[in-house]
Model the fold of this input.
Amino acid sequence: MTDRDELRELLIERSVRLGDFTLASGAKSDYYIDARRTTMSAEGQRLVGRVAYDAIREHGLRPTHVGGLTMGADPIAYAIAHVSAIEGDVIDGFSVRKRTKEHGTGQRIEGGLPVHGQALMVEDTMTTGRSTLQAVEAVRAHGANLVGVLTLVDRSENARSFYEAQGLPLISLYTGEELVEAARNR
Done:
């Protein structure tokens, strides 16, 4: 079984929930994917880092930094950073706060993303892509260049075309449909 297959199984086992839910976008759904139950686990960290790092390279992206809106993006960014160090091709992580910090240095972006850095935005589960856009705008305002967006799970509500209109390719590691179908067949 490949790392991608193992991660898919872990997501189905730990993160897919069937029932009635209201999503962050306000939409109603008969399933919910709490990816943090996978991305924050030790095994999930190993698999997410490897699968996402490989996908970044397969798509020809060369970010210097990877991150996104805290908290969903954090474990994914850090797992990718870890694997990149092992591979000798370092991609550092960063986090974008929902709001600028009102104390200390007053930063909205944590982790040392430099002005003119090459940033890849990450998200755990994406429906419309609009919440990730907050982080995209913060990184652009900071002065970093965006090379694309990566989501662990794409719930497939036109996020790809939304980001293409922003000039950013979207890498989706899994679709919500494929995970839910597999969960329902168990």
Remarks:
- The longest strand covers residues 145-154.
